[in-house]
Amino acid sequence: MSHIRQRALAYRDLSRKLQGRDIAQVILMHHNLINAMWLDDVIAMFRQMGWTITTPQAAFADPIYALAPDRPVAGQSLLLSMARVLGLGRLEGWERLVDDGDYEIAALAAKGL
Question: Which of 2, 59, 80, 101 has its CA 20 to 30 A from that of 110?
Answer without folding.
Answer: 80
